[in-house]
Design brief:
heterodimer, A: 428 residues, alpha+beta, Rossmann fold, Coagulation Factor XIII, Chain A, domain 1, 5-stranded antiparallel beta sheet, 8 helices, 33% strand, B: 287 residues, mainly alpha, 12 helices, globular
């Protein structure tokens, strides 16, 4: 197998909050006097005991990372996920040699480049051309490298015309594209990327993701990638590391970790309702009164597995007379792929409550987590309101007599007529 | 940061909590030399690109300062400048003092001005102060050439004798020591001022006061023997006097004083590098 290029061992990063280390000469002198000269305890801070058992809840202590261990092999693409403050950025900063760990070691092989921000080193007064060079140098490229790739970089960014204009006159999209184009042409052995795809338009994001995937697959480059977009992590990464409050919560294949992570941060919503239109989601024309997902269980204690038909029922307050209303039911997998978009018939409605119901048959969806969005449409053409992710649920697996234990592939698992018969008998 | 023992175990680099006083990776530093030239270029483009006079501005500041000094210290106060024309005397003092104080100031702002870059990307931090040194050296070079032209004018039209001697060959060494000392102070200050903000306000004041203890606006020869120690402890003093002697033919210094300056510069520079190396990495958490 491919060799390990990064090895992280017992990595810990500890910040002292409050007055410690914030730069008062008097305090530091006082600390030095008491600890070094008089050999007494630190007047401002009690050092944690040798076994490290200080309560992490102590308000002066922040464990940004605690005891992180993992190994990355060459050519792997890793996603790092976790909520804000989970330590993702701290981890990337340590790996990119920007900050030092409090304890623990990172060992690595090969040249490492990091992109924790779009356009590091860009100066608004300089032209695009100058900025390509300076940010390329800062990211660790040589003059020859940039020169040879300059045309490619400009073509990738798509701003040929403006290359000699100061970047302060660029739109933010152009700025981001140029900055990313430089980084996309880096050729390190290990590339570290933080959240940068959150900016830029959808097309350019796709282009960047495509470029990154191409690079990791064709050139065997190792990539570490932090993103809030779980879709991007699933699409791009083989492996994922889930950080929670500075600790490793889970590690494994990107698909599994992302769906576990999403499940944990979002509780399933099987029904929501509002008693008055004022607080209900919607706008001046329509407001939701309730949404419900009713599993057609034979017995209320049964588990919701893939055989169970699911009825989606919802009601809206219609605020205007004589409008033709219809609905669309969008079902998504948790990683964000749309499974279907089912339209309802449209009817003419008066002011008041309008209710609708749709049943997703049993033996149709695969096991997994799903969410539903409902869109309200006027005159079969105008989208009035979309209630995003109003319901979410998980379907358990059911395989019956089948002895296949791996993950069942596909977004749906419909029971289609499937005929098997023997037509000839060759054995005499 | 990159420890040698890592290579033994088959790793290219290791990152741990230990920082070292020594352990510069000069190969790594060299691999970023394009960044250094790029930063120098950027500095010049930013300062002079969108101005009408452009690089002429490099000369405006010392020339105006020189006229002020001539007016105040020569005409009003009447400080004797020996046989030297006051214009050349003050100009020489101003350009090398500027080189020193700019090198110092440039290096001392390393962490405060680049905090946003340092917190986003790694490169050898030493590149930044070195790029400032090179920038200020180039700026000095322009002023120096102007100064040489002025000497030429005085020689041709003012009847001033040509006073180049064997010491003229020492000018590059003198400049190296002045720039090195400026950067050495700057390196120490870059760490301490980033950590202790109060010092940041003190530095420009201290530098200004130091100027009065350096023979910039007066020749050492005019300082009376009793208080000459006030100026002589300053390792810059022999360098300034030697610079004037080498180019204008008048200056008071001994070889031992020059050695003292050289030793001071080397020691300060090493101390600066060590502090920068040891403490610089940990600063990112604080700034």
């Amino acid at each position: 197998m491919s060799e390990v290029v990064i090895q992280v061992e017992k990595l810990t990063k500890h910040y002292r909050l409050g007055t410690i280390g914030t730069g008062s000469l008097r305090q530091d002198l006082q600390r030095w006097w008491t600890t070094s000269v008089r050999r007494q305890e630190d007047p401002f801070f009690r050092l944690e005991s040798a076994d490290g058992n200080t309560a992490p809840s102590d308000k002066n202590n922040l464990w940004a990372l605690r005891d992180i261990n993992f190994e990355i092999k060459q050519g792997e693409v890793w996603g790092i996920i976790g909520q804000n403050g989970a330590g993702k950025s701290t981890l990337l900063k340590i790996l990119s040699r920007i900050v030092r760990p409090t304890s623990g070691v990172v060992r690595g092989k090969g040249k490492i480049s990091s992109m924790l921000e779009v356009g590091t080193g860009f100066h608004p007064e300089l032209t695009g051309r100058e900025n390509v060079y300076i940010s390329g140098y800062i990211l660790g490229m040589t003059k020859e490298e940039i020169k040879s790739k300059f045309d490619e970089i400009i073509a990738f960014s798509g701003i040929e015309k403006f290359i000699d204009t100061p970047v302060k006159r660029y739109s933010s999209g152009m700025y981001v594209r140029l900055a990313f184009a430089v980084a996309a042409h880096l050729e390190p052995d290990i590339l570290i990327i933080d959240e940068v795809l959150a900016v830029g338009d959808a097309d350019f994001q796709k282009k960047c993701l495509g470029k990154m995937r191409e690079v990791s697959q064709s050139e065997g480059r190792t990539i570490l990638f932090v993103s809030h977009s779980s879709q991007a992590v699933v699409n791009l990464c083989d492996k994922a590391l889930w950080l929670h409050q500075g600790k490793m919560k889970d590690i494994g294949s990107a698909h599994e970790i992302v769906s576990r992570y999403i499940n944990s941060i979002q509780k399933f919503k099987l029904s929501q309702s509002w008693s008055t239109p004022e607080e209900a989601p919607g706008n001046s024309q329509v407001r939701f009164s309730y949404v419900k997902l009713i599993p057609q269980l034979g017995n209320p204690d049964d588990i919701m597995d893939i055989r169970v038909p699911l009825t989606v029922k919802f009601g809206i307050w219609n605020m205007a007379d004589d409008v033709m209303l219809g609905f669309g039911l969008h079902l998504y997998t948790y990683s964000g792929e749309c499974i279907f978009d089912v339209p309802s018939p449209s009817i003419v409605c008066q002011k008041g409550l309008v209710e609708a119901e749709c049943t997703i048959p049993g033996d149709f969806l695969n096991d997994g987590s799903y969410y539903i969005s409902i869109i309200v449409v006027r005159n079969t053409s105008v989208a009035l309101f979309t209630f995003e992710e109003c319901l979410s649920f998980e379907l358990e697996d059911y395989r019956g007599p089948i002895q296949w234990f791996d993950k069942w592939m596909g977004a749906v698992r419909p029971k289609l007529p499937f005929r098997v018969r023997q037509t000839e008998n060759v054995f005499q | 940061m990159i420890s040698k023992e890592a290579n033994v175990k088959g790793w290219d680099w290791t990152i741990s909590s230990r920082t070292k006083w020594w352990g510069w990776d000069f190969k790594e530093l060299w691999s970023y030399h394009h960044l250094l030239t790029g930063l120098v270029r950027r500095e010049f483009l930013l300062n002079y690109q969108q101005t009408i006079l452009g690089p002429v501005w490099i000369l405006v500041q010392p020339v105006i300062t020189m006229f002020t000094y001539v007016l105040v210290f020569d005409k009003l106060v009447g400080i004797p400048t020996g046989t030297l024309p006051p214009v050349l005397f003050y100009l020489s003092g101003i350009i090398i003092w500027n080189f020193f104080s700019d090198s110092l100031g440039g290096a001392s702002n390393t962490f405060r001005e680049n905090a946003h870059i340092f917190s986003k990307v790694y490169f050898p931090r030493l590149i930044m102060p070195f790029s400032m040194l090179v920038t200020h050296f180039l700026r000095f070079l322009v002023q120096f050439i102007f100064f040489l032209i002025m000497i030429g004018l005085y020689v041709i039209f003012g009847g001033m004798p040509v006073s180049f001697s064997i010491w003229t060959l020492f000018v590059p060494l003198i400049l190296l020591l002045i720039g090195g000392m400026g950067m050495a102070f700057g390196l120490v200050l870059s760490v301490t001022t980033a950590k202790y903000r109060d010092l940041g306000n003190l530095v420009p004041l201290a530098v200004r006061l130091l100027m009065f203890l350096t023979p910039v606006i007066y020749p050492l020869a005019t300082v009376s023997e009793e208080i000459r120690w006030l100026v002589l402890w300053n390792p810059l003093t022999p360098l300034f006097e030697a610079f004037r002697f080498a180019l204008l033919g008048e200056g008071t210094f001994t070889a031992i004083q020059l050695v003292y300056s050289g030793v001071c510069t080397v020691l300060l520079f090493m101390a600066g590098l060590m502090v920068f190396n040891k403490k610089g990495d940990k600063l990112i958490d604080v700034i």
